[in-house]
Specification:
single chain, about 290 residues, alpha/beta, six-stranded parallel beta sheet, 12 helices, binds zinc ion
């Protein structure tokens, strides 16, 4: 479902070019007063030296540490690069800042992560990364994928709630729920154009956030900023209620209060409940075979 492979260049980008891009981004924020939150999203692993040379990485961290407006830093990486070494360096350079490493756990089920997402690591690797980061006072922001392909709406709902609970137990500091959106030239797009995939309902997202918030310790933030919400390629309901529900989701992310969902209602809720009860995975598999 992810278009990173297609977005990315097959040639390595030299370190000085990466640094130049980073300086440019910082300059664009020069009029901001702060406190600032810097998110270094590389569409890959910021801590993988094959993607970002070690010198460049450290120069970027240096630039961040010199900027007193910055109070929070989020870097992205796969779990295997969250090591004693990399965490030690980040702790030394960014001491005093709230630092989180964003890691795409997606699902805490090895079967779902492997078969539906093809991610290439185990839950155990993720748990180890959380422990290693924690030992250096660095938090982990777990990305949870809502409704990868080949799951029914109900299974997707259950999987995301369970994943959030599991991630919280492992000790993550933030959970970011990402509903699948249909990106170009992906398997999900092929399934979607054949009527074999529907992005998650906004009702499902609301249910995931409500159930997870009730279960998980209040020290763990649960956030969601859905891409393409209300669009046919993104998380959506019936169009009429999409905007109000998306706004409620954004409010929830800011204040963590599930009360924002209480007043939401729409006729399409019945159809969603019906889907949860009656959508049949066997039928889905049958259609895919055809
Ligand atoms: Zn509706």
């Amino acid at each position: 479902m992810c278009s990173y492979l297609l977005d990315g260049s097959h040639e390595a980008v030299p370190g000085d070019k990466i640094l130049q891009q980073f300086r440019h981004a910082i300059e664009r924020a020069s009029s901001e007063k702060g406190p600032l939150s810097i998110k270094v999203y590389t569409s890959g692993s910021f801590l993988d030296e094959d993607e970002v040379p070690t010198d460049t990485r450290n120069q970027i961290l240096d630039l961040i540490s010199e900027d007193e407006r910055v109070s929070e830093v989020v870097l992205e990486s796969r779990p295997q690069y969250v090591t004693e070494d990399s965490m030690g360096i980040i702790y030394d350079l960014l001491d005093g800042r709230h630092v989180e490493i964003g890691v795409g756990l997606e699902s805490s089920s090895d079967a779902i992560r492997t078969l539906c997402i093809n991610k290439g690591f185990e839950t155990e690797d993720f748990a180890e990364a959380v422990t290693t980061a924690k030992a250096h006072k660095i938090g982990i922001r777990a990305y949870v994928l809502l409704k990868p392909p080949f799951l029914t709406e109900r299974d997707a709902l259950l999987d995301s709630v369970r994943t959030i609970e599991d991630a919280a137990k492992m000790g993550v500091t933030t959970i970011s729920v990402n509903p699948v959106n249909v990106q170009k030239h992906t398997l999900v797009e092929r399934l979607w154009t054949r009527g074999l995939y529907r992005p998650p309902w906004l009702w499902t997202l609301v249910e995931v956030l409500s159930q997870a918030r009730a279960q998980v310790d209040s020290s763990v933030n649960i956030v969601c900023d859905p891409v393409a919400a209300g669009k046919k390629r993104g998380v959506h309901n019936c169009r009429r209620c999409d905007e109000s529900i998306t706004m409620a989701v954004r409010n929830f992310s800011l204040n963590q209060k599930t009360g924002v969902f209480d007043a939401l209602d729409c006729d399409c809720r019945h159809l969603w409940s019906h889907t949860l009860e009656h959508e049949d995975f066997a039928l889905l598999v049958h259609s895919i075979k055809r």
